[in-house]
Amino acid sequence: MSDVLTLPLPDDMHLHLRDGAMLEAVAPISAQRFGRAIIMPNLVPPVVTGAQALAYRDRILAAIGPDTGFTPLMTLYLTETTEPEDVAQAAADGLIHAVKLYPAGATTNSASGVRDFDKVRGVLERMAAIGLPLCVHGEVTDPEVDIFDREAVFIERVLDPIRQATPGLRVVMEHVTTAEGIAYIANSPADLAGTITTHHLILNRNHLLVGGIRPHYYCLPVAKRERHREALVAAATGGDPRYFLGTDSAPHLDAAKETGCGCAGCFTALNTLECLAQVFDAAGALDHLAGFATGHGAAFYGLSAPSGQVVLERRAEAAVWPAKLDTGAGPVTVFDPGFPVFWHRV
Ligand code: NCD
Ligand code: ZN
Asked: Which of 122, 130, 160, 181 has a C-alpha 20 to 30 A away from that of 339?
C-alpha cells in the first residue's frame, strides 16, 4: 500500500458554521479543506426562509474570503409554518439543496423544530415531488425514552411512518449512531441515505464517560456502545454509496462546553480528513475513502464531480494540530481522536 493518497476534494454533507465571530473563525477552516458543504440552518433565529438562506450564504462567503472555490450548499430549517411554495422556489433558484427536520427540542437550537409531523405533510409532499432531500435529526424527544435509545425509537415512531406516507421523499438520516440506524438504511431503497460523522467512527460511550466526563466528546446523538461504533465503521468503510461523510462539526466555545450543563457538539472540521484516513487505514479500506468523503454524497445530492484534489501522506511521526482554535469570542477545542494519526495533509 502506497504511503501517498490522492483524493478528490472532500464534501462535508453536514456542517455547522454558526454566525458572527464563530463563523469568521471556522468558515475558512472548512473552506480550505472541503470543496462543498451542506450548511446546517440551526442559527438563532433559525434559517427558515429562502431570503434568510441567501443572506446567510452571503455572510459565509464574506467570512471565507475570495478565491477559495468553496461552495456552501444551503438548507432551510423546517418549521410547522414553513410554506411549501417558499421551499420550492428556493430549490428552483438553486439556492437550497435540502430541508432540515429537527424534532423540537432534540438538540442545540432546535426549539423551533417540528412537534406535530402532520403539520409539515404539505412541505414533505412538495419536496418528494421536486426531489429535494429532507435531512433528518433522527432522535425522539419523549422524556420517557432513554437518550441511548432515541435514535432507534425515532426510526420506528417517526422516520418510517414519514417515509411510508410520503413515497418518493429522498431522506438523509443524519449522523447515524446505531446499528439499528445502519440496518434500517441497509434494508431501504436508495432514496434513503445516511451521513456518518468522523467522531462517531472513533468514539464509543466509554470514551465520553470513563475516567471522568469529557465534555468535548459530548455531542448529539450521543456516542453509543462499541458494537454500534463497529457497525458505523463497517458501513462507512464498506463502499456502499448510501453512506457518506457529514462531519457534524459543531463548534461551541469552551466556556459553553466545560460547564455544569455543557452544549453538545464536537469541532472536527480541522482534522477530519486525517482522522478518517487513519480509521479507513486501520480497517484496510483506504480505497473506499474517496467514495465516502466525496463521491457518494455528491451523487445523492445530484452534484457534479469535485474539481479539486487533496493529497495525504502517511509518515512515521504522528500529525499534530493546535489543541484550540482561537475565535474572536473565545477558544474552541479541536477534536482529539485519542490515538496517533499518521496521515498528514500535504
Ligand atoms: C449540533 C449543534 O451544536 O448545532 N450539536 C451536536 O451535538 N451535533 C446540533 C446537531 O447536529 O445535533
Ligand atoms: Zn449537526
From this structure: 181
Peptide bond into 221 cis (omega under 30): yes
Indicate the class that CATH gives domain 11-270: alpha beta
Residues, Cβ < 5 Å to ion ligand 2: 248
Distances (CA, A) of 172 to 62, 122, 242, 245: 29, 19, 9, 11
Q: Could you tell me the CA-to-CA distances from 218 to 252, 302, 317 in Å, in that order?
A: 11, 32, 29
Where are the domains positioned within the chain? Answer: 11-270
CA distance 149 to 140: 9
Which residues face 324 on adjacent strands?
A: 333
204 lines ligand 1 (CB under 6 A): no
- Active-site hit among 248, 281, 287, 336: 248
Q: Whose CA is nearest to atom 11 of ligand 1?
A: 248
| Ligand 2 center from residue 141 Cα (angstroms) | 16
Q: What is the pTM of this model?
A: 0.97
Count Cα neighbours of 56 within 13 Å in the Cβ-side half-sphere: 30
